[in-house]
């Protein structure tokens, strides 16, 4: 073998030896992991929404105009708090008010005519009664008596007709006022104007939506729950609500409705709607209608549970614990669990250190591990 060939063999042997030495070193290099110690605390059995829920109001209405006309005024702008019955929008009522003024004048005229008819009827009764007494004493003729009776009947008839005309005039006034009222859109309940759909000067037709109003003190959250949890839900269960717009803030509520039907429009993701009351809470912001929210329904809990982070449990029956610098597998029996905590009924003791970062490459029972410096 030549000197050159012998040199190539030496280089190749060194490279192979280096490769095996490096692989051996890598095999023994500890895997950085994060851990948590088992502890005693509360573990809750929870059901959470499968998709984002929505904040809604129990009192929410889209209001329409009852008459056709031109928008003359919008006294309440968006965001204004209003009373029940307060005018939110007014159509042009010029013609209606002219008719009301005419009806009021007719009512006054009819009232005056009624007074005249009453006076005439009273005079006719006096003449009739006087004539009757004279007739009984044979001091008045039968003709005079008949004439007095006829005059009384005529006066009573005029009085009755005048009363009917007064009633008709009053009805005309009420109709004119009702017409003016129908040209106004009023809030059906105390709340806040959430949206206006027209502007001053626009023409509207009967039934056309013009305003939206809602009560911000009667909020609830509507959220979809996976159908597999339907049998575990019932009205009255406590619940927690979080709103994306206010991270870290938790509202407590109650499950008040579970839909009797499952939505199967999305066949691969069948859900049913639940509703959780969201009452005002002192010191907390008030969510707005339409905001996205998440719901956790609390099915049960245990307060003195031996627990580990749920991220440490493998397939619901095994964990990796830290023992003398290596990962060791431990079979466990679990109880209540949620996305954060899992109750351990057997297989672990309080204070043992379990590995929570199970996604590390090469992590398995028996390999060397080290706790990451930035573990929480």
Write the SSE topology:
Layout: H1 3-27, E1 31-33, E2 35-37, E3 39-48, E4 53-57, E5 60-64, E6 69-73, E7 81-82, E8 87-91, H2 94-136, H3 142-182, E9 184-186, E10 191-196, E11 203-204, E12 209-214, E13 219-226, E14 238-243, E15 250-258, E16 271-278, E17 292-309, E18 313-314, E19 318-323, E20 326-331, E21 333-337, E22 341-346, E23 353-355, E24 369-371
Parallel strand pairs: 1-24
Antiparallel strand pairs: 2-23, 3-17, 4-13, 4-17, 5-12, 6-8, 6-11, 7-10, 8-9, 10-12, 13-16, 14-15, 14-17, 15-16, 17-22, 18-19, 19-20, 21-22
Helix pairs in contact: 2-3
Structure, briefly:
The protein is an alpha+beta fold and 376 residues long.
Give a description of the structure.
This protein is an alpha+beta fold and 376 residues long. It folds into 4 domains: 31-42 and 303-371, conserved putative lor/sdh protein from methanococcus maripaludis s2 fold (Beta Barrel); 48-57 and 216-301, Elongation Factor Tu (Ef-tu), domain 3 (Beta Barrel); 62-83 and 187-214, Beta Barrel (OB fold (Dihydrolipoamide Acetyltransferase, E2P)), CATH 2.40.50.100; 93-182. The protein contains 3 helices and 24 strands. Helix 2 runs antiparallel to helix 3. The longest helix is centred in the N-terminal third of the chain and has 43 residues, at 94-136.
């Amino acid at each position: 073998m030549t000197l050159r060939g012998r040199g190539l063999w030496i280089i190749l042997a060194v490279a192979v030896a280096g490769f095996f030495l490096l692989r051996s070193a890598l095999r023994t290099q500890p895997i950085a992991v994060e851990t948590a110690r088992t502890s005693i605390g509360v573990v809750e059995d929870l059901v959470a929404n499968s998709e984002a829920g929505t904040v809604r109001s129990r009192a929410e209405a889209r209001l329409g105009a009852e008459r056709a006309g031109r928008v003359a005024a919008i006294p309440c702008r968006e965001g204004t708090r209003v009373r029940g019955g307060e005018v939110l929008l007014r159509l042009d009522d010029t013609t209606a008010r002219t008719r009301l003024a005419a009806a009021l004048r007719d009512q006054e005229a009819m009232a005056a005519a009624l007074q005249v008819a009453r006076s005439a009827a009273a005079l006719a009764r006096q003449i009739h009664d006087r004539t009757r007494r004279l007739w009984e004493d044979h001091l008045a003729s039968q003709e005079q008596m008949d004439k007095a009776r006829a005059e009384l009947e005529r006066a009573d008839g005029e009085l009755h007709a005048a009363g009917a005309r007064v009633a008709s005039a009053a009805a005309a006034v009420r109709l004119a006022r009702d017409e003016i009222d129908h040209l106004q859109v009023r809030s059906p309940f105390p709340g806040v104007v959430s949206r206006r759909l027209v502007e001053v000067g626009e023409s509207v037709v009967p039934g056309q939506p013009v305003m939206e109003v809602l009560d911000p003190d009667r909020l609830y959250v509507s959220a979809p729950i996976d159908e597999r949890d339907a049998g575990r839900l019932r009205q009255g269960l406590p619940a927690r609500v979080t709103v994306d717009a206010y991270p870290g803030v938790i509202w407590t509520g109650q499950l008040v409705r579970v839909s009797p039907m499952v939505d199967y429009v999305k066949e691969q993701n069948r859900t049913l709607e639940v509703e959780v009351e969201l009452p005002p809470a002192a010191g907390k912001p008030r969510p707005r209608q339409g905001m996205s929210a998440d719901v956790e329904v609390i099915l049960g809990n245990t307060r003195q549970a031996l627990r580990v982070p749920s991220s440490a449990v493998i397939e619901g029956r095994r964990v990796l614990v830290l023992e003398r610098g290596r990962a060791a597998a431990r079979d466990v029996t679990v109880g209540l669990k949620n996305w954060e905590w899992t109750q351990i009924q057997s297989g672990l003791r309080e204070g043992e250190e379990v590995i929570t970062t199970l996604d590390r490459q090469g992590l398995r029972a028996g390999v060397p591990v080290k706790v990451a410096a930035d573990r929480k």
